[in-house]
Amino acid sequence: MTIATERAFVVFARGQKRDEILAQFRIGLRVLKNPETGLLFTEDETRRAVQPGSRFWREAEAIDLLGQAEQARALWLADQVRLDRASHSWLVGYHGRLWEPENPDPLPAFAGSGPADASASTGTIFIGSTTVPDPAAHVARDAQGNRYQVLTTVATPVSGVAALTFIGIDVGPQTNAANGTVLSWENPPLGALPTCTTTTTFTGGVPAEDDAAYASRLRARVAHKPGAGNNSHFRGWARQASNAIRDAYIYACAFNAGSVLVCITGKRTGVGPQGLMASAGALAAATAYLVPPNSPVVPERAFVVVLQFAPQASHVVLQLQQPKGNDAGWRDFATWPTIFVTGGAAAAVTTVTDQLHFRMRADSPGGTDSSLPGGVEPPLSMSGLNAPHLMLWNENTSAFEELNVASVIHVAASSNYDVVLNAPPGFTITVGSYVSPSMKRRDALAQAAADYYDGLGPGEAVDLETDVRADRAVRFPEATEEAPWRGGQAIITAISDALGSSLSNAFLHSMTPSVPAVPADIMTGPRKLILGKLGVYELP
């Protein structure tokens, strides 16, 4: 197999040409006579003639330095014609105007958006608009002065609380208002209280498009030429609609001939497995830009639907072979719990008494205590210094948290263990939560798993084996080219890269599901695997 060279021309290392010049000089000097002695130059005389600091060495050094300067200019110019190495000015001024002449500039910053509750008299109308800013829409400010506009018009129900959706008039990450932020109305409608409160953290507020994201958009146009409203054209239009959009996936003829389904993903601005869900503002911007008859780019007769993906949780069980009893691997010398001998199930919480007491199911063949670390004596418990270091998976934030364990007691003739904590964790323990032996580098492990799932794209919108639309409605870009939708063994590579040499081996025990389901109703959006529960155990 032919491997492409790094450069299309030879690159010389510092001093390489100097050494070549001096070598040729030595060869030529050996066949000449010394005019002072009339004899051939000796090896000692030749060596002294080219030693560092000599006249001939300085001449060769000067030539080498000049060549290095000229080579540096050539290398810089060669970098500029590559999308992945070009400087900002060349990326925009050359590549942007070459591949995207109709809109060559990077996208501007975008505003955060999200829900908020507003108290008002029944029937009070909050006017919204997808045009930002719109003087007719109601506007509120946060304590920092950032302005937010109501996105859709809402009438207050009989409960007296209107569920509003806001989008920032100001832009940038500072408009990702935190959950519980109080917004003060600039122009409240009659019957409304002077403030409202956000109910979740706003998402979608991003800075101006950076060079990496801009180059990614251009590479997509280079790989697949847009034109005449083809798949690449729709993908490019969707990514132009807002800088908060990470990517777009196109399903041509997903509904019928002349129809286009556009599934967008958002840039991650928060934590958790659903961090790639597009914000309300990004979805509104894409809809306004792509859906006729008001679209500035799509012809009126096209039927276009813009959707988000539908998240589908995928649960993972891994086995890792790494050092024990130190910061590079497992915290304990004897790790517990272990993976189930039968079925390979993860150790999980079965009953929660309160946030200091819960029961978990772990490997205990035949109802004995054989899975407990060696040296544990009756009453088959681990407590105090003997208590194992455990960590619990937080599915909402895709992170591990180490538990402050007081004791673990085996429930006789069962595979159950009662766990007592000295302090509650930072989140609510629920039935089904995965319990794993603790490791110091748990954050790096969790981040690697989350990044792997972020790299997966949405699945298909129709069944490619049975549906008559399959030939046209297959996802673009195809999963074999970009953003595969199937999960699998590649997660081991991602984790190995994150943990480095301390991880000597790893095994993917289970991933359920590994393939996103085809939606029963296409209007719910294509399914995309997101990270659900994660359990990690020792690989013997």
Give a summary of the structure in a few sentences:
By secondary structure, the protein is of the alpha+beta class. The chain has helices at residues 16-29, 43-49, 55-80, 88-99, 211-223, 231-241, 280-290, 442-454, 470-473, 490-499; strands at residues 113-120, 125-126, 139-141, 147-150, 154-155, 161-168, 182-185, 192-198, 245-252, 259-266, 303-308, 310-321, 348-354, 357-361, 381-383, 390-394, 399-402, 404-410, 416-423, 435-437, 505-512, 527-538.
Give a verbal description of the structure.
The strands form 6 sheets. Strands 1-6-4-3-7-8 form a 6-stranded antiparallel barrel. β13 (348-354) and β14 form a beta hairpin. Among the domains are: 16-80, no CATH class; 113-198; 331-438. It has helices at 16-29, 43-49, 55-80, 88-99, 211-223, 231-241, 280-290, 442-454, 470-473, 490-499; strands at residues 113-120, 125-126, 139-141, 147-150, 154-155, 161-168, 182-185, 192-198, 245-252, 259-266, 303-308, 310-321, 348-354, 357-361, 381-383, 390-394, 399-402, 404-410, 416-423, 435-437, 505-512, 527-538. It is globular and about 115 Å long. By secondary structure, it is of the alpha+beta class. The protein is 22% helix and 25% strand. The protein has 10 helices and 22 strands.
